[in-house]
Amino acid sequence: MRRVAITGMGVMCAIGRSMAELQASLRESRAGIGPISLVSREGLQAKVAAEIRDYVATDHFDERRLVLLDRTSQFALLAADQALADSGLALDKIDRSRVMTVLGTGTGCATAIDDNFHATYKMGGRPHPLCVPKLMINAPVSQVTMAHGLTGPSFMVSTACASASHAIGVAFQMIRAGLADVAVTGGCDATLSWGQLRAWDGLRVMAPDTCRPFSRDRLGMVLGEGAGVVVLEAMDLAQRRGADIKAELLGFAMNSDAGHLVNPSVGGCADVVSACLRDAGLNSEDVDYVNAHGTGTQVNDIAETAALRQAFGAHADRLMVSSTKSMHGHTIGAGGAIELCATIASARGGFIPPTINFSEPDPQCDLDYVPNVARDARMTTALSTSFAFGGHNAALAVGLGWS
Amino acid sequence: MKSPYDAEIIGIISSRVKIDPTEFTREMTLDSAGLDSIDIIETVFELEDRFKIAIPFNANAQDKEKLRTAGDVIDLVTQLIVEADALVPAPSQA
User: Which residues contact A346 (CB under 8 A, 6 or more apart)?
Assistant: First the structure.
């Protein structure tokens, strides 16, 4: 099996529109959650979100092109541009049929769906003539292939909050297996439409003020938006061209709870972590840090803590665990990718990213959550976990000794 | 104390788990009646729609304790209806 390097990263989220900005935000515990400004707060129970503030689409794309680009596709394109530039790959000098593109999304193009169907059902108008190719769930990945002429395999993965991790994991497996040399992969979601926010309100799991993962006074999750994209490359090729290797993707696992539609299972989460360690050839003691799913709901944070204890045994007490969702919010289908980027950015900065808004320990959440401030520490091996609605679980293992 | 909305509230709760409304008591917990977390979210939603009220309920807060028994639901919903009635003209049917 071929080894797989991460040679490029790009991000668009509430605390970073570039990897440098993301790294600075993580180091400084910058809060990306604030009052919703994208849509009316009228009728919303949860009036906060982690928005990419002051984002102006026409600063990045011309108006004609925007006709086909939902906010989700825009973020995917911008993160992919960054990641490819960061990789240093000369796309015009390589066989682009060996470059695959796979992205995850939970909702897809939420704003385009809302706007067009509101116009149709409610206002008696018609959907925009190009709304189908704009709002189709595979639009973001298709746009990335067209922007860079990437003619290898491309597809979209949709497994709610595990989408990005599944996308990266499948791309990793395909490079390992020799089916592609390079992958542009990650996730994207911009779900902050008024209709989506109202829909999430109905689940009664949204925090009214902010996201406090693993803290006793946590009141639920806060939605975010954005995209994260990484460039994966066969290690032999990356080394041969003298690429700046940011990390090595060591292992991946996925499984299904096959239990409850929205509640996580400790067994399923623990098993996927153990399977990821086996896939990576790691022992529990090798892992320094876990970027947790850490949504800030009562149910997730307790189950995830128990799952990490089950998977890591005695080593759980020495493990550093944090939820960066406390800063960039829950970006749904982009989550696993943004969180992998956050993990690598922190490792390269020589620190562990914190769980902010942590005010009070919970007896049922008894791990080291790196509360409130980044910790100067070296991480050599880390895991990023995603546990989705629908019972889809994923874990990615990265080797960080490359910085 | 019986509220004029008792029967309808119990009807909404019991329909979720297909239990005869006459078998419900105020003391019966939603859990023992077989309502899971999803049933409770749907019940809250239906009660809000029916009575045009907003029930403060976040599954992550102690709100779950406020809605432990059928009596808890009746009392909270009745209180919210009364508060809403104080603001708008009384509903045509009780």
Answer: A23, A26, A27, A352, A353, A374, A379
Q: Where are the domains of chain A?
A: 4-240, 252-399
Of A202, A219, A263, the CB nearest to B60: A219
CB atoms inside a 10 Å sphere around CB A144: 28
A220 touches chain B (CB under 8 A): yes
Topology of A252-399 in CATH? Peroxisomal Thiolase; Chain A, domain 1 (3.40.47)
Render A344-378 in DSSP notation, one character per residue: HHHHHHTEE--B-S--SBBTTB-SB--BSS-EE--
CB neighbours of A323 closer than 8 A, spacing ≥ 6? Answer: A213, A214, A291, A292, A293, A294, A295, A296, A355, A369
B41 close contact with A: CB closer than 8 A? yes
Q: Does the annotation count A330 as an active-site position?
A: yes
d(CA B7, CA B55): 19
Name the CATH topology of B6-86. 1.10.1200
Closest CA–CA distance from residue B61 to any residue of chain A (Å): 6
Sequence-separated (6 or more) residues with CB below 8 Å from residue A329: A13, A14, A32, A33, A49, A50, A211, A222, A223, A224, A225
Q: What is the CATH number of domain A4-240?
A: 3.40.47.10
Shortest CA distance from A45: residue in chain B: B56
A368 strand-pairing partners:
A320
Domain boundaries of chain B, sorted by first residue: 6-86
Rounded CA separation A224/A192 (Å): 8
The two domains A4-240 and A252-399 share their CATH topology (first three levels equal): yes
Pair of tokens at residue A215? 């803290």
Instruction: Output the DSSP codes for A203-265.
Output: TT-B-SS---TTBTT---B-BBEEEEEEEEEEHHHHHHTT----EEEEEEEEEE--S-SSS--
Residue A261 has pLDDT above 90, yes or no: no
Q: Over range B53-69, report the average pLDDT.
A: 87
> In this predicted structure, what is the pLDDT of residue B23?
87
Q: What is the pLDDT of residue A82?
A: 98
